[in-house]
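Recap quiz, item 2
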Amino acid sequence: MSARSFHSVFMVASCAGAALCCYMVSLHVASERSQLEDVESRIVVAQRDMRVLQTEIGTRGRLTQLERWNASVLALSAPGANQFVSGGYELAKLTRNQPTVDFQAPVVLAAAPAPERTPAIGQESRDDSGAETPSADGASPGALLHQASLKIEPRDIPARAVAPVRAPALKTPAAKSIAAAKPAAEKPAAAKSSATKSAGKKSVDKPHLAAAKPVTKPARLAKTDPLAPLPVKLANKTAKDSGPAR
Amino acid sequence: MNAPSPALVAPRPERLRLVGQRRQILAVMHQRLMFGLLVYAGIIAIIALRILWLAAFGDHAGRKEGMTALIPERGDIVDRDGEPLARTIDAWTIAVHPTKVIGDKLALAQKLARLMPELSEEQYFAMLRSGKPFFYLRRRASPDLVEAVNALGEPGLALEREADRLYPQTSLAAHVLGFTDIDGHGAAGAERAFDKYLSDPASRGQPLTLSISSRVQQALQHELEDAMVHFSAIGAAGVVMDVHTGEVLAMTSLPSMNPNVPGQATPDQMFNRATLGVFELGSTFKPFTLAMAMDSGTVSGPGQMMNCPEVLPAYGHLVHDTHPFGRECSIAEVMMESSNIGMAQIADKLGTERQKAWLKKMGFLDKAQIELKEIGRPLTPGSRWGPFETMTIGFGQGIAVAPLQLAMGYATLFDGGIYHPPTILKVGPGHPLAPGKRVFTADTSYRMRSLLRLVVMKGTGRKADAPGYRVGGKTGTAQKLINGHYSQTINLTSFAGVFPMDDPRYVIVVMLDEPKATKETFGFTTAGWNVAPVVSKTVSRIAPMLGVAPDMNREPNMSEVLPFVRDPKQDSKKD
């Protein structure tokens, strides 16, 4: 009974409720949208502020002003053509030069006593240089020291004592500063070889080997040290040999 | 007694009529009421529906229209790297409504004169008493001043925000940018040429990208200004252009102006010497004559020999040289020593008609095809264009063109002979490269490289060399026409250069108007002494920015020209 009598009331209430829900949804959407718009307008305001600041910074730091500061304070100039490096190789060349210079310094000091010995052992060293020049030429002070050690009987100890120091010292300068070392070493060698001009390559080789053998092991050292040039010489010899054959 | 009462009798016809009328009236009234009801109900329904509609889809009261995107009042102008060159800012404007002033006008005038001393107290007082409704006191006022004026508390003073055009780089590229008038419309330069684009609401949100590079522009402007001051020249102009696209990377005209305050600029400062001014640019024209001759086949190549006497009599005139050969000389030597006599003979062989046709093809007889409106019309001999005029034009006298056109000509010559119209807009997606037009053959273009490099290596343009950047070019010293006569002392010097010459990419043209001799130039006012060093300095500054790496081991093929140049040492030995 009561339900039927309140039927219309329920209908009205449910309709009103549904309408209210719809309204709430739309209200919610509207409020979300307004928040979004607030954010958007804040972004625009921020952009405008950024623009104003950028303009101000740009105006204060305009190129004319920078040029004026440069003229009065900084004095920077455009880089010269020689300040540009064309590739990685040139760049590497720039950086490697410094350590080699440092590295050679102690070698020079170590070789300081060498000149004393050269006159005494000079003959043999000349023979050496005449026969298997490049290794001896490659590192003049080191090579002299090394030859000195060859002749003296207790050579084993100094040779080994010097060797660890010499080995890295020899490798690096020989590899990187050949150009620098060569002229210095070649000149005396050339002068000396001119003195002993008559001696041909083969003839020099043999006396040297003969001289080296009685002193036992130095011959081995001579073989191991100039490994690189030796095959070249051999190749030359064979070429010379084959030359006339042709 | 029984007489019937009148009431029982049928009503009188008048009464009956009355009842019927009343009912009718009542019905009409009901109808009208119903109609009114419906009208009101309809209105209410419309209002209700509108309210519902607004509730569902409408905007809320706090909505800020037009704030969702930042569109300036007038579009920005930026350089090719995006650096702003012109912007619109909100500036403060101070104005006065004299009729609305309520305080003591004399006291107000005193205070205004103290704050803004550009006008005197009397002038302010006269302004306030004039009875006119409105005066601007200061546009683009500083915030401090606005605060001080506001503190005066006078309701007749109006403080307003107003869109104003700001050029952050001040005088940089002033003639390219131009300026705007008081209403915010472009009055010169790019502002005028692209006024529609910059003010159209649909397009002004996107900045206008120019081909100008502000750093290159600064380098060119600074070096040119230095030279102008050093040599006491009355003016100068310079253009840097991309050979392959015709883009103008820098264009300057000195004396410069500040577009922020265009009212302070003199007419001389406003004059764009690079595009509007036309000048007889002298020997810088010679490469064109030679290229025309080589393309036409009248000259075989740099090795061809010709007679180069001390003085050349031609058509009733005498042609002179600054360094006459007085012997047989090669084309390469003519170019290297900038010989008028040699070039006059080449032009004579070429002939008037062919010269005209070539110049027409290169665009030297018409206005330059650039977007700017300030374009000068070239001056030619016109109807007097005879064989002698052909000769003089051959070495650059008798034809006046704008420096921009000269740059355009060099760009054509060294872009494999293809002409691209110059542009001040960056070539890119929004502005494609304009179609080119072949003028010279690629072979001629290639052979000109070593010839112009020779001028810088051994000839008149030695001071223009920038080590490693392979600059090639040609000096030009033209005598100025003063009162109808060529002056012997007043010159207009120019240099047109191209770099790097082994693969040309950029053209640079600089010009000094009336440079004076100094101690360092040993009294000379020729181009080799005053403008050539500007090119050297500018190129060493801008080339690294433009991606041209210096290389001391690269040169164009100099073996094409060097065998044809006689060594002065050999000459002296022979003597």
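Chain A has a mean pLDDT of 63.
The first helix of chain A runs from residue 2 to 5.
End of item.
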